[in-house]
Design a protein that fits this description.
It is a single chain. By secondary structure, this protein is α/β, with parallel strands linked by helices. It folds into 2 domains: 14-221, Rossmann fold (3-Layer(aba) Sandwich), CATH 3.40.50; 240-282, no CATH class. It has 9 helices and 10 strands. The protein has helices spanning 28-39, 50-53, 104-118, 148-154, 167-177, 199-213, 222-238, 241-257, 264-278, and strands at residues 14-20, 43-47, 62-65, 71-74, 78-83, 92-98, 122-131, 141-145, 157-158, 182-190. It has an 8-stranded mixed beta sheet, with helices on both faces. The chain has a two-stranded antiparallel ribbon with strand order 3-4. A hairpin with an 8-residue loop joins strand 5 (78-83) and strand 6. Helix 1 packs across helix 6 (199-213), helix 3 crosses helix 5 (167-177) and helix 6 packs antiparallel against helix 7. The radius of gyration is 20 Å and the shape is globular.
């Protein structure tokens, strides 16, 4: 079992989790949690025993040398850390690791047990998938939950997905069974630029987490990285007439499908979010809206 070390008393904590692998197109989800670890200076508190959940022939340990030339082995695992966003009355427990290779039900049960011990109020899982989405438009992010009450409260969809799933889906179901509130945000990464990283999708996920938490997340250089990524894909598409035409067809389909959303109510809702973000003191927001 996970042993927690140096854990302070937490205030209204929320858990935010992401896993590398099948659930993480363009590394967008794991990069979002890593960003939160960095900007909020998260303190590590625990890690899963890798012997229990990982196949080392699939996810091999890594050997490195420190400044004195001493060799160290870093094992594949999932780690937990605590972030205390400044000036906010809520702590965040961050979970980041690699999708386990085995014993998923035990893995989820262990993580939920830790969540209960920490007094977690809600579990938020992040994922990213490849989709027919144009890189020139805001990254679509779908928010779902299996809890009808939570869906109404937060304005989310009830999950209707059927098909293969990853550890994110299994963890969501495990939370539902023990009546722990859980939501999931999935970003759609353009399939024709699937290689990592995809900072625009990472930014879009962070925007949804920001809306859920109802306080700003410092973004640092991420808006500029997202803008540079989009410009780079523009250049690649311009060099191939078939890809350029395909992108135009995706843009047309996207714009046509979203026409009903261009209502005064939708615009006002987005403008309110914009103003809330700008009223935060000292959070260094750029002007690029990735979500």
């Amino acid at each position: 079992m996970i042993e927690l070390e140096g854990v302070p008393e937490l205030i209204d904590p929320v858990m935010v989790a992401a896993f590398e692998g099948w659930n993480d197109a363009g590394d967008a989800a794991s990069a979002a949690v890593e960003h939160l670890e960095q900007v909020w200076k998260a303190n590590p508190i625990a890690a899963f025993d890798p012997e229990d959940y990982y196949d080392f022939q699939v996810n091999r340990p890594v050997v490195s040398l420190d400044e004195r030339g001493v060799r160290h082995i870093t094992w594949p695992t999932t780690r937990l850390s605590i972030a205390r966003p400044p000036r906010q009355q809520r702590d965040i427990v961050l979970v980041r690791g690699i999708e386990p290779n085995m014993r998923w039900r035990s893995f989820c049960a262990e993580l939920i047990s830790v969540a209960h011990d920490l007094g977690i109020q809600m579990v938020v899982t992040l994922g990213a998938l490849l989709a027919d989405a144009p890189h020139t438009r805001p990254v679509p992010v779908t928010g779902t939950t299996s809890d009808p009450g939570l869906a109404r409260q937060l304005g989310l969809e009830q999950s209707r997905y059927e098909g293969p799933t990853g550890i994110v889906g299994v963890l969501q179901e495990a939370c539902t069974k023990v009546r722990m509130p859980a939501v999931s945000f999935w970003a759609a990464v353009p399939h024709y630029v699937a290689q990592s990283p995809c900072p625009k999708a990472t930014l879009a996920l962070l925007r949804r987490v920001e809306d859920l938490l109802d306080f700003p997340i410092p973004l640092g250089d991420l808006p500029e990285e997202a803008r540079a990524w989009e410009l780079g894909v523009d250049e690649l598409a311009a060099e191939d007439s078939e890809i350029a035409e395909y992108v135009r067809s995706l843009e047309e389909a996207k714009d046509t499908a979203e026409l009903p959303e261009a209502s005064g109510e939708a615009i006002a809702r987005e403008f309110e979010k914009y103003l809330r973000r700008r009223h935060a003191d000292g959070d260094g927001y750029g002007t690029f809206e990735g979500g």
